[in-house]
Design goal:
By secondary structure, this protein is α+β, with helices and mostly antiparallel strands. It contains 23 helices and 23 strands. The strands form 6 sheets. A 6-stranded antiparallel β-sheet has the order 15-18-19-20-17-16. A 5-stranded antiparallel β-sheet has the order 1-2-3-5-4. A 5-stranded mixed β-sheet has the order 10-9-6-12-13, with helices on both faces. A hairpin with a 2-residue loop joins strand 2 and strand 3. The longest helix has 37 residues.
């Protein structure tokens, strides 16, 4: 073996060989847990291997390009990632953070020297530091990982003074990507730009007091604030500094409260706090998510992690009517909880109270929210936990008492220097020692199902009736009954498509799905836009018109995949047939256009004399050449004037009785 760089790859006769088990480990660590990872791991097992005394190796040219492209790493960075295994055993699993750290550190050591001339104006230590930071920023722009992953992996590369704040770093990268700045400009210190540190609390209070006055403009407020600054011996502020402070959300809420009063604030900003429970079930729901205080063990990454649960609570009975679990709170798990609610209960409440989390701003959840509002549901948002006290009380009970007997229970209120208690290394290490007793992810989800069912079926306090029984005993409901079509419109994905030739086409994941409407609906909605609702499998769709009226339910009758790698022969035949028909229609249209232009040109070049002829074919019918007479104006070359010339265009009408239209003329 010649030219070897690592015990896990080498070159021989200008061919690159990569150790199979190391490459598979890099593939698994980079892609994580998803369908693409499983598909690529299956595909890599089919690649032929070459055996050496060190183990089984893959020829780099034999590795499918789809696998290399899925890693989104260059060949150099893949080889750098394999260096993680220099001093490790074969079965040692390395996290994504270790891979990123290895790629970045090796890249900086190899590339920082080429950026050194750009910072020669500084001292040697500072110029080297800028060059290394330049190489690091360049890796931020090229590596296919998230900024958070690279930032976490690269923290230990520099001293504490050289590390950036994460938000400050993202702003830098955004300016570089949009072309507003360059890496050199972001690294070099800004000269001549001094921060205004004199916008003190006294000046802010003065600005807010002036803002509360009616008909106060920013210019008037700025004059009064700078006047107060001169009296206090402080530096004057600019208009942009004033506007940026007054437009902060917390400042706006505080000023609105002072200007409009408590009643307006509670009606428009905060959700009403229901101190008394509603009399009927399904009248008020409170929804919220929280982290489950039970860890699970990820055997693939050798890590301890947590899940989150989203709960929908009926306030009148205290019953959990819908819930779902996922790694982090997101709009998908919220919709999953509401789908479970609609499938089991078939009702939506009159009012729902939520907080102002980010996942409620997703487009698909906004569509769900707007559709529910059309049904009569009222949504309330609150940033104060007292705005949804019942669901907060449930999480306190669920975390402190119900989950307490579970293996590895983490507990609430643990003191930790880091705000995120999951990063407490000593506590995590203690839990990791008992990893054999911890749940897996799937087992934890099943365990959470049993804990919530225990809450629903166990009486609370002095009551002898459990929340689930109390919910069933209340026959009257204050909610809104939903049908199967309402369930589809609320929870399924939607798309607006155009009906063409009684068909609608949906493209998902490089596949085309065709749906044939009925003859009546195909004609009625031809060339009009309709809204279709579908699930990920796209086996059937439900069509609604622009007014929301149901059109029909359609099943897919064609499925064409243009990718030759995974499309079947039947799909290819259908696709070729459709393409041939399209080309034929296009050629016919072109030929008709060419013939029409040729005919017009011939008619303009010559004058056809008036000649009506009759051709007798048999005793019953006759053929006539019918000449349409029209007048054209042509330019006389002698005097340059326009002359009207009568011209005849001849067409042939076959086997029709024209005795009523034309008078027969003997030749």
């Amino acid at each position: 073996m010649t030219g070897g760089h690592s015990p896990y790859y080498f070159t021989s006769n200008k061919k690159l060989f990569v150790r199979k088990d190391a490459f598979v480990a890099v593939l698994a660590s980079t892609l994580g847990n998803n369908k693409r990872r499983a598909r690529n791991l299956t595909l890599i097992q089919k690649v032929p291997v070459t055996s050496f005394k060190e183990g089984e190796f893959l020829l780099w040219q034999d590795v499918p390009q789809s696998i290399i492209q899925s890693l989104k790493l260059s060949e150099v960075n893949i080889l750098r990632a394999l260096k993680v295994y220099d001093l490790e055993l074969q079965n040692k699993k390395v996290s994504k953070r270790d891979l990123i750290y290895t790629i970045i550190s090796n890249s900086i050591e190899e590339n920082w020297i080429q950026y050194l001339p750009r910072y020669s104006e500084y001292q040697s230590d500072r110029s080297i530091s800028y060059s290394r930071l330049h190489a690091l920023l360049n890796e931020y722009l090229t590596l296919p990982y998230s900024i958070k992953d690279i930032y976490t992996a690269s923290k230990s590369l520099f001293c504490e003074q050289e590390n950036w704040n994460y938000n400050y770093l993202t702003e830098k990268l955004k300016r570089i990507r949009t072309g507003e700045s360059s890496i050199e400009n972001e690294l070099k210190p800004k000269k001549g730009k001094v921060r205004n540190l004199k916008f003190t609390r006294e000046l802010k209070d003065k600005a807010e007091a002036e803002y509360e006055k009616e008909f106060s403009s920013y210019d008037d407020i700025l004059i009064e604030v700078n006047l107060s600054a001169r009296k206090l011996g402080l530096r004057e502020i600019t208009k942009s500094t004033l506007k940026s402070h007054l437009k902060l959300k917390e400042v706006q809420n505080r000023l609105r409260l002072k200007r409009n009063g408590d009643q307006w604030y509670k009606a428009n900003i905060e959700a009403p706090i229901h101190l008394n429970k509603p009399e009927l079930k399904d009248e008020l729901y409170e929804a919220d998510g929280s982290r489950i205080q039970i860890p699970y063990y990820n055997r693939e990454l050798n890590e301890v992690d947590f899940l989150s649960v989203f709960v929908i609570l009926d306030v009148a009975t205290g019953n959990v009517v819908g819930y779902s679990c996922d790694q982090y709170e997101n709009h998908e798990m919220v919709l999953m909880a509401f789908e479970r609610l609609l499938v089991i209960n078939g009702r939506m409440p009159r009012c729902i109270t939520t907080d102002k989390a980010r996942h409620y701003k997703a487009k698909r959840f906004k569509d769900f929210k707007s559709e529910s509002k059309r049904m009569g549901v009222t949504w309330r948002e609150t940033s104060n936990p007292s705005g949804k006290p019942y669901v907060e009380s449930f999480f306190r009970l669920f975390g402190q008492k119900i989950s307490k007997s579970s293996p590895g229970y983490y507990g609430l209120g643990i003191t930790c220097m880091n705000p995120d208690s999951r990063s407490e290394k000593r506590r995590i290490a203690k839990i990791l020692k008992m990893k054999s007793t911890l749940f897996s992810r799937e087992e934890l989800i099943i365990h959470v199902d049993s804990l919530i069912e225990y809450y629903r079926t166990t009486p609370r306090g002095d009551s002898l009736i459990s929340p689930a029984e109390l919910y069933k005993l209340q026959k009257k409901s204050g909610g809104i009954a939903t049908s199967d079509l309402d369930l589809i419109k609320l929870t399924w994905k939607s798309k607006i498509v155009t009906v063409s030739k009684s068909e609608i086409t949906i493209k998902r994941s490089r596949k085309f799905y065709y749906f044939q409407l009925s003859h009546e609906n195909g004609l009625a909605y031809s060339r009009s836009k309709i809204k279709v609702y579908f699930k990920d499998n796209l086996e059937e769709v439900y069509c609604f018109d622009e007014k929301g009226n149901f059109v029909e339910q359609v099943k897919a009758f064609k499925r064409i995949n243009p990718s030759p790698a995974i499309s079947c022969e039947n799909d290819k035949k259908i696709l070729n047939k459709l393409l041939a028909e399209r080309i034929k229609r296009k050629n016919n249209t072109i030929n008709d256009s060419i013939n029409r232009k040729k005919r017009i040109k011939e008619n303009e070049s010559k004058i056809i004399p008036i000649d009506l002829r009759k051709t007798v074919t048999n005793n019953k019918s006759e053929e006539y050449e019918v000449h349409k007479e029209f007048t054209r104006q042509l330019l006389d070359p002698k005097n340059g004037k326009r002359v009207s010339i009568r011209s005849i265009e001849s067409t042939l009408e076959l086997n029709i009785d024209t005795s009523r239209l034309y008078k027969k003329i003997d030749p």
